[in-house]
Amino acid sequence: MNAFLPLGYIDPGSGTILLQVLLAALIGSAAFMGKIVAFVKRLIRPGAQASPPSKSASANEDSPGEQRRAA
Questions:
Q1: Contact, 60 vs 66, CB < 8 A?
Q2: What's the average model confidence in pLDDT over 38-57?
Q3: What is the CA radius of gyration of the chain?
Q4: Can you spell out the DSSP letters for 3-58?
């Protein structure tokens, strides 16, 4: 008989928690690294990911295509 057999047992509750911790660490680190890569890319090429300019509130009021309803 093997003397180390009882040390190899993990009950279902502990095994599930361990699996959840490992998966959360893997997914969290992948998301974190993705944010770091995106940040570095923005530093290298600052104009590549720029969003289009938004319209100001006065520009929206002056546009004839958009009409407001009275409440």
A1: yes
A2: 72
A3: 27
A4: TTGGGG---HHHHHHHHHHHHHHHHHHHHHHHHHHHHHHHHH-TTTTPPPPPPPHH
Residues 20 and 14: their CA atoms lie apart, in Å, by 10
Question: How close are the terminal C-alpha atoms of the chain, in Å?
Answer: 83
Q: What is the pLDDT of residue 35?
A: 96
pLDDT score for 40: 92
**pLDDT value of residue 28:** 97
Q: How far is CA 42 from the centre of its chain?
A: 17
pTM, whole model, 2 decimals? 0.47
